[in-house]
C-alpha cells in the first residue's frame, strides 16, 4: 500500500471525528504543489477537490512569501473571514512532505474556536 493510501486511511476516521461538529463544513488535506490527498465535505456547497487543493497550494505559497518577507519566517496559519463562515489553512509536514490542512466552518464557530480545532487536528495528524 502506498504512503498516500496509508495517509488517507489514517485521515478518514480522524476527519470524521472532527466533522461531528455541526459547524464544520470542509476538512481537506492537500500537497503544497496542489494535489488533493483526502477531504470531506458536509457543507451545502459542492466543491471540486482538485480546485480546492490548487487554491490551498496557492494560498500556502502566497502566505509563505508574505511572512518570509515581513517576518523572515514561514507561515503557520492563515484565515479567510467570509460573510457566512471562516476558512483556516495550516502548513504542516508529515513524513518529510509538506501539506496544507484546510478547515472551513459556519459563522456559528468563531475564528478562535476554528483555530483551536484545526491546530488540534494538525497536532493529531503529526
TrEMBL record:
<dbReference type="InterPro" id="IPR004942">
    <property type="entry name" value="Roadblock/LAMTOR2_dom"/>
</dbReference>
<feature type="domain" description="Roadblock/LAMTOR2">
    <location>
        <begin position="11"/>
        <end position="105"/>
    </location>
</feature>
<dbReference type="Pfam" id="PF03259">
    <property type="entry name" value="Robl_LC7"/>
</dbReference>
<protein>
    <submittedName>
        <fullName>Roadblock/LC7 domain-containing protein</fullName>
    </submittedName>
</protein>
Amino acid at each position: 500500500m502506498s504512503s498516500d493510501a496509508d495517509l488517507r486511511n489514517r485521515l478518514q476516521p480522524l476527519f470524521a471525528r472532527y466533522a461531528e461538529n455541526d459547524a464544520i463544513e470542509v476538512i481537506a488535506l492537500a500537497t503544497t504543489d496542489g494535489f488533493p490527498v483526502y477531504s470531506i465535505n458536509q457543507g451545502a456547497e459542492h466543491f471540486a477537490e482538485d480546485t480546492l487543493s490548487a487554491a490551498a497550494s496557492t494560498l500556502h505559497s502566497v502566505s509563505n512569501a508574505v511572512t518570509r518577507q515581513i517576518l523572515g519566517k514561514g507561515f503557520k496559519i492563515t484565515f479567510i473571514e467570509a460573510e457566512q463562515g471562516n476558512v483556516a489553512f495550516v502548513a504542516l509536514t508529515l513524513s518529510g512532505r509538506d501539506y496544507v490542512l484546510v478547515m472551513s466552518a459556519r459563522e456559528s464557530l468563531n475564528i478562535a474556536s476554528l483555530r483551536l480545532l484545526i491546530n488540534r487536528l494538525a497536532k493529531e495528524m503529526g
